Amino acid sequence: MLLKRMKRQGCGLKVFEIFRIALRGLLTNKLRSLLTMLGVIIGVGSVITLVSIGEGVRASVSEQIQGLGSNIILVTPGKGTVGINSSSMGGALSRLTYDDALAVERKAGTVSSVAPVIESSATVEYREDRKFTLITGTTESYNVVRNAPVAAGGFITRGDIRSMRAVAVVGDTVRKNLFPGANPLGKTIKINNKNYKVIGVMERKGPTLTIDNDDRVFIPITVAEQIFDTKQVNMMFVRSINPESVSDAVSDTKRIISGRHGKRDFTVSEQEDILDTFQGIMGTLTGMLGGIAGVSLVVGGIGIMNIMLVTVTERTREIGIRKAVGAKRREILAQFLLESVFISALGGIIGIGAGFAGARALVNIIPKLPTVVSPWSVVVAFLFALLVGLFFGIYPARKAAGLNPIEALRYE
Amino acid sequence: MVVHIEGMDKIYGRGDSKVSALKKINLDIYQGEIMAIMGPSGSGKSTLMNIIGFLDRPTFGIYEFDGRRVDKLNDNKLAELRNRHIGFVFQNFNLLPRLSALANVELPMIYAGVSARKRLRVAKELLEVVGLKERLKHKPNELSGGQKQRVAIARALVNHPSILLADEPTGNLDSKSGAEIINLFDTLNSIGVTVVLVTHDREVAMKTDRIIYLRDGKIVSDTKIRNLPENYPGYALKTNETAGMRIEGL
Ligand SMILES: Nc1ncnc2c1ncn2[C@@H]1O[C@H](COP(=O)(O)OP(=O)(O)OP(=O)(O)O)[C@@H](O)[C@H]1O
Ligand SMILES: [Mg+2]
After folding, report:
1. With contacts defined as CB-CB under 8 Å, which chain A residues touch B55?
2. B91 touches chain A (CB under 8 A)
3. CB–CB contact A10 B82 (8 Å)
4. What does the alpha-carbon distance between residue B95 and residue A163 come to, in Å, rounded to a whole number?
5. How many Cβ contacts (< 8 angstroms) between chains A and B?
């Protein structure tokens, strides 16, 4: 607005000159300008980096959720809003069993298959090697429903479940750890000191964030019920016959299980619900991260104000001289305001570079942590930096502009 | 008449700490004259100069500049008047230390919105006028006191001021360079520049057209030194062409 007014008065030339004067002021004390900028650089850099973590987690987990398939329904014990929350509080609140799964699979015409899972951690041994891993008790439907094919051998069969055979299918990580360079098929491993025959190896799925999806051993659900001494399934994956029939499958599932339990003590959620909830949580989290980093930008702004106040005091005489030869209030104001805006703008630009570098460095330091620099975080961080420079530059610049020329000339 | 001051008071502070720096001043300054203001320390010389030069405002009274009332103007208007009509020369030079002689001389033209090319041309010309042709790129700390004051004078002249105001311009100089500066003022005056200078040196004052003597904020005497021409006031001030300012003996 200030500059516009000067322009209207036919002083476009002057605007340019005041730009130059401000820039020169910045360059006379390079180290100081750089140190002041550092606050803004760190602020902008950390906003971009932290938001990139949030965005990265969101993108990667969303992809994983979408990977479930759009015709997958999740049933979890307990009454929550959405699978994610209720599965964690699951347990004692209600019983969701293998029989429920069988009932849904049998009775619901809209459901093609159901994969219940009982999960618990246990020690797995092969000869001298042992490792602590996740044991998943499930049914033959699992590799269809979860789209998790075997790489070698076969998956658990209906017969294995009925006869409660001590068989196991190992994930890729377990294979690598316990059978380095060897074929695990037909070998005998021990889970909680009980022998199991390895009948298959899963295809590698790759990690989600820091969770290794391949660090698992699958066993028949009936065996899991026995060794973990529970009838309670942690969750079941229900697959509708096609994507269009998802909502019918949801109501069928609800009706059938409610009928068996006599009440709605479970939660049914579609992939979309899970995605929405998750995205909501991540959005809040990312916003918080950005906000925290934004605080450091404000601190950077206070640094600018501090230095600009020192600068104005140091240059009191210069201000007096400029006023004595005819500089107007707003010309002095513009000079010092531009100086602080330059600091924040330049700091912002360098900070953007720092943010990208930080996001990249994080991926190298924590390989499983994906980071995605989002364009809006770059724009918002930079504009916020500019605003901070402007805001915290106003007070010192006004102070400079308001100096009495005689007193300023006399200042020593 | 460039300056017409009537019944002017300047009061600093208020209440118990009130200082009456100027009392009922009546003063006319004519175009083309060179005038000295004398008086003991604290008599109000600088105060008067600052008001004439729009660095300050009178508390009471009338100030007309070029026939226009200026005693109640706002800061912006005063800055504009300083820029267009006043050339200031200070005892302590008041040059910007980081700028070259040339850039220092250009400074008032920046605020007047003069183009870079013209600024350079005028600044060079005026530095030549004051005899510093060889020192264009020097910083103030690479110049002697007398040279610094010449830069300041060149700077004061760039916007063709109606008045050149010099507050003890030789106060920080040895007698030789002081005399040179006074000669410079004299020469500038001879080509039409109106000059007001504050000095403690009687000899310097005696070379001017007129001496004002201040004591306790009052004008106690106003003496014409030279016999002024019949049609006084009357030097035509060349304000448009610095190119015409070529001074002999410098
Ligand atoms: N900003 C101010 N606040 C209060 N009093 C002031 C201020 N400026 C000047 N004075 C007072 O006004 C009076 C005139 O001061 P001024 O500077 O005009 O004197 P001077 O004649 O220039 O003296 P010198 O020869 O020492 O420069 C002095 O009594 C001084 O103390
Ligand atoms: Mg004085």
Report:
1. 324, 405-406, 409
2. no
3. no
4. 101
5. 63
Residue range A268-291, pLDDT digits in tens: 888 778 888 888 888 888 889 888
Using CA coordinates, name the residue in chain B closest to A29.
B98
Which residues hold their Cβ within 5 A of ligand 2, which is an ion? B 46
Which helix H or strand E contains A252, and what residues bound it?
helix A246-261
Put simply, whether A28 touches B (Cβ < 8 Å) is yes
User: Which ligand 1 atom sits closest to the C-alpha of B40?
Assistant: 25
Residue whose CA lies nearest to ligand 1 atom number 18 = B44
Interface with chain B: mutation pick from A319, A325, A330, highest number of B CBs within 10 Å: A325
Structure tokens that stand for A12 in this block = 């476009």
- ipTM, interface predicted TM-score of the complex: 0.90
CB of B80 less than 8 A from some CB of A:
yes
Record: contact B111-A328, CB cut-off 8 A: yes
**CB of A101 closer than 8 Å to CB of A233:** yes
SS (H, E, C) chain B: CCEEEEEEEEEECCHHHCEEEEEEEEEEECCCCEEEEECCCCCCHHHHHHHHCCCCCCCEEEEEECCEECCCCCHHHHHHHHHHHEEEECCCCCCCCCCCHHHHHHHHHHHCCCCHHHHHHHHHHHHHHCCCHHHCCCCHHHCCHHHHHHHHHHHHHCCCCCEEEEECCCCCCCHHHHHHHHHHHHHHHHCCCEEEEECCCHHHHHCCCEEEEEECCEEEEEEECCCCCCCCCCCCCCCCCHHHCCCCCC
List the residue whose alpha carbon is closest to atom 25 of ligand 1: B41
Q: Which residue of B has its CA nearest to A18?
A: B110
pTM reported for the whole predicted model: 0.77
Strands across the sheet containing B68-69: B19-29, B3-12, B60-65, B68-69
Chain B within 8 Å of A320 (Cβ-Cβ)? yes
pLDDT for A80 equals 63
Q: Tell me if the bond preceding A375 is cis, omega within 30° of 0.
A: no
What is the pLDDT of chain A when averaged over all its residues? Answer: 87
Q: Whose CA is nearest to atom 19 of ligand 1?
A: B42
**pLDDT tens per residue across span B135-188:** 999 999 999 999 999 999 999 999 899 999 999 999 999 999 999 999 999 999
B75-85 vs A329-365: helix crossing angle, rounded to 10: 100
Contact A7, A13 (CB under 8 A): no
Residues A287 and A54: their CA atoms lie apart, in Å, by 8
Closest C-alpha to A78, from A235, A278, A239, A249 = A235
Query: Ligand 1: does its nearest atom lie under 6 Å from the Cβ of B12?
Result: yes
* Segment 149-178 of chain B within 8 Å of chain A by CB: 155, 159
Q: Is the pLDDT of residue A345 over 80?
A: yes
**What is the band of A338 on the pLDDT scale with cuts at 50, 70, 90?**
very high
- The CATH number linked to B235 is 3.40.50.300
The B residues from 33 to 62 touching A (CB cutoff 8 Å) are 50, 55-56
Query: Which of A11, A21, A409 faces B94 most closely, judged by CB atoms?
Result: A409
Coarse DSSP helix, strand, coil percentages of chain A, rounded to the nearest 5 percent: 60, 20, 20
Average pLDDT over residues A90-114: 81
Rounded distance, CA A73 to CA B229, Å? 110
* CB within 8 Å of A1: residues ≥ 6 apart: none
Tokens standing for residue A168: 């196991």
Which domain, by its residues, includes B222? 3-246
pLDDT in the model for residue A339: 94
Q: How many separate domains does chain B show?
A: 1
